[in-house]
Amino acid sequence: MRSLPSPARDVLALVARLGLGFIFVMHGWQKLVTNGVAATQEGFAGMGAPVPDAAALVAIVLELGGGIALMLGAFTPVVGSLLALHMVAAALIAHQGNGFFVANGGPSYVLALAAGALALAAMGAGTFSLDGALARRRGAAPAATPA
User: Fold this and answer.
1) Nearest-CA neighbor of 26 among 63, 58, 59?
2) Residue range of the domain that includes 87
3) DSSP per residue, 98-136
4) Which of 56, 27, 26, 23 is nearest to 41 (CA)?
5) What is the largest CA-CA distance in the chain?
6) Residue 145 is assigned to a structural domain of this protein
7) Spatial CB neighbours of 34, under 8 Å, sequence gap ≥ 6
8) Predicted local distance difference test score (pLDDT) of residue 4
9) pTM of the model
């Protein structure tokens, strides 16, 4: 099977990064501003998260900072991997025992976010990204544009 031409892959990587990054930013914003840090920490404690005060802060930083980094295409392999691990942890801690579907509190949504973040980590940010700009500056090809 032939893959998409490089420009199409780069545009699709940009769209995926912007969409997924925005979702993470909004969830981090909700934890930080809408709910507030204290309520988020209480919520993590109620879900049985280990070290809930620290875990809530890590979640806020990962979701806000990682979401912004994804949107910019900065450190995409590392950020995507961390966000994927974060979502797997959310599935195991907050969504376990609720069936599969999100309507019942199941992990389908966070697993979809994990898969998207992992896909971006694997394919790279593409040409239209900070990672791509840094690669061009160093004279290397950006990750999402292999021949």
Assistant:
1) 63
2) 7-129
3) S-SSGGGT-SHHHHHHHHHHHHHHHH---SSSHHHHHHH
4) 56
5) 51
6) no
7) none
8) 72
9) 0.90
